[in-house]
Specification:
By secondary structure, this protein is of the alpha+beta class. The chain contains two helices and five strands, in the order E-H-E-E-E-E-H. The chain has a single domain, classed as Ribosome hibernation promotion factor-like (Double Stranded RNA Binding Domain, 2-Layer Sandwich), CATH 3.30.160.100. Helix content is about 35%, strand content about 25%.
Protein backbone atom coordinates (compact mmCIF):
# COMPACT_ATOMS: atom_id res chain seq x y z
CA UNK A 1 0.00 0.00 0.00
CA UNK A 2 1.40 3.35 -0.95
CA UNK A 3 -0.09 6.17 1.04
CA UNK A 4 1.14 9.55 2.13
CA UNK A 5 3.53 11.69 0.21
CA UNK A 6 5.11 10.34 -2.96
CA UNK A 7 8.75 9.34 -2.76
CA UNK A 8 11.16 11.71 -4.39
CA UNK A 9 14.47 10.67 -5.89
CA UNK A 10 17.23 10.85 -3.25
CA UNK A 11 19.95 13.38 -3.95
CA UNK A 12 22.79 10.83 -3.93
CA UNK A 13 21.63 8.85 -6.98
CA UNK A 14 23.30 9.47 -10.32
CA UNK A 15 22.02 7.92 -13.56
CA UNK A 16 24.17 7.35 -16.66
CA UNK A 17 22.70 6.23 -19.98
CA UNK A 18 19.09 6.36 -18.80
CA UNK A 19 18.16 9.16 -21.21
CA UNK A 20 18.45 6.69 -24.11
CA UNK A 21 15.63 4.56 -22.66
CA UNK A 22 11.91 4.95 -23.25
CA UNK A 23 9.94 6.96 -20.63
CA UNK A 24 8.42 3.73 -19.24
CA UNK A 25 11.87 2.17 -18.82
CA UNK A 26 13.20 5.37 -17.23
CA UNK A 27 10.37 5.26 -14.69
CA UNK A 28 11.08 1.60 -13.99
CA UNK A 29 14.80 2.25 -13.43
CA UNK A 30 14.04 5.19 -11.14
CA UNK A 31 11.50 3.22 -9.08
CA UNK A 32 13.68 0.11 -8.63
CA UNK A 33 16.75 2.21 -7.82
CA UNK A 34 14.89 4.23 -5.18
CA UNK A 35 13.64 1.03 -3.52
CA UNK A 36 17.13 -0.48 -3.38
CA UNK A 37 18.70 2.83 -2.34
CA UNK A 38 16.91 2.62 1.01
CA UNK A 39 18.17 -0.93 1.61
CA UNK A 40 21.75 -0.01 0.69
CA UNK A 41 21.62 3.10 2.86
CA UNK A 42 20.57 0.99 5.88
CA UNK A 43 23.43 -1.45 5.29
CA UNK A 44 26.19 1.08 4.63
CA UNK A 45 24.91 3.79 7.05
CA UNK A 46 26.82 6.64 5.39
CA UNK A 47 26.16 6.45 1.68
CA UNK A 48 28.03 9.05 -0.34
CA UNK A 49 26.97 8.25 -3.88
CA UNK A 50 25.04 5.65 -5.86
CA UNK A 51 25.67 5.51 -9.61
CA UNK A 52 23.50 3.47 -11.98
CA UNK A 53 24.97 2.99 -15.46
CA UNK A 54 22.63 1.54 -18.09
CA UNK A 55 23.95 0.16 -21.39
CA UNK A 56 21.79 -1.27 -24.15
CA UNK A 57 22.93 -3.65 -26.84
CA UNK A 58 20.78 -4.24 -29.92
CA UNK A 59 21.22 -7.76 -31.21
CA UNK A 60 19.85 -9.08 -34.51
CA UNK A 61 16.12 -8.45 -34.40
CA UNK A 62 13.99 -6.28 -32.17
CA UNK A 63 15.19 -7.33 -28.73
CA UNK A 64 17.57 -5.26 -26.65
CA UNK A 65 19.99 -6.63 -24.11
CA UNK A 66 20.49 -4.49 -21.03
CA UNK A 67 23.73 -4.33 -19.07
CA UNK A 68 23.70 -2.68 -15.65
CA UNK A 69 26.57 -1.40 -13.59
CA UNK A 70 25.84 -0.07 -10.12
CA UNK A 71 28.52 1.61 -8.03
CA UNK A 72 28.22 2.53 -4.34
CA UNK A 73 30.71 4.97 -2.81
CA UNK A 74 31.12 5.36 0.95
CA UNK A 75 32.88 8.04 3.04
CA UNK A 76 35.58 5.54 4.01
CA UNK A 77 36.56 5.41 0.32
CA UNK A 78 35.20 1.89 0.01
CA UNK A 79 33.65 1.23 -3.35
CA UNK A 80 31.25 -1.53 -4.30
CA UNK A 81 30.76 -2.21 -8.02
CA UNK A 82 28.31 -4.71 -9.51
CA UNK A 83 29.47 -7.08 -12.23
CA UNK A 84 27.83 -9.64 -14.52
CA UNK A 85 24.40 -8.07 -14.41
CA UNK A 86 22.85 -8.21 -17.84
CA UNK A 87 19.58 -9.57 -19.12
CA UNK A 88 17.03 -9.23 -21.91
CA UNK A 89 14.59 -7.65 -19.43
CA UNK A 90 15.47 -4.29 -17.90
CA UNK A 91 14.01 -4.81 -14.39
CA UNK A 92 15.60 -8.24 -14.08
CA UNK A 93 19.03 -6.91 -15.05
CA UNK A 94 18.72 -4.06 -12.54
CA UNK A 95 17.64 -6.39 -9.73
CA UNK A 96 20.65 -8.64 -10.49
CA UNK A 97 22.97 -5.64 -10.19
CA UNK A 98 21.51 -4.60 -6.84
CA UNK A 99 21.60 -8.17 -5.50
CA UNK A 100 25.30 -8.31 -6.41
CA UNK A 101 25.93 -5.01 -4.60
CA UNK A 102 24.06 -6.18 -1.48
CA UNK A 103 26.04 -9.45 -1.43
CA UNK A 104 29.31 -7.50 -1.62
CA UNK A 105 28.22 -5.16 1.19
CA UNK A 106 27.16 -8.06 3.43
CA UNK A 107 30.40 -9.89 2.70
CA UNK A 108 32.71 -6.95 3.29
CA UNK A 109 30.92 -5.19 6.15
CA UNK A 110 29.26 -8.25 7.74
CA UNK A 111 25.97 -6.39 8.14
CA UNK A 112 24.02 -9.65 8.30
CA UNK A 113 25.66 -10.70 11.59
CA UNK A 114 23.84 -9.49 14.68
CA UNK A 115 26.12 -8.47 17.50
CA UNK A 116 25.11 -8.40 21.17
CA UNK A 117 24.82 -4.91 22.55
Amino acid sequence: MSGGTPKTKPEHIQFVGVSELSPEDQESVSKITTEHYDKIKRSVHNLTNLTVHVKTYQQDGNRKKYSMHVRVDTPTKQQFVSTNSDDWELPKALHKAFEDIMNQIHHKLHTDVSRPS
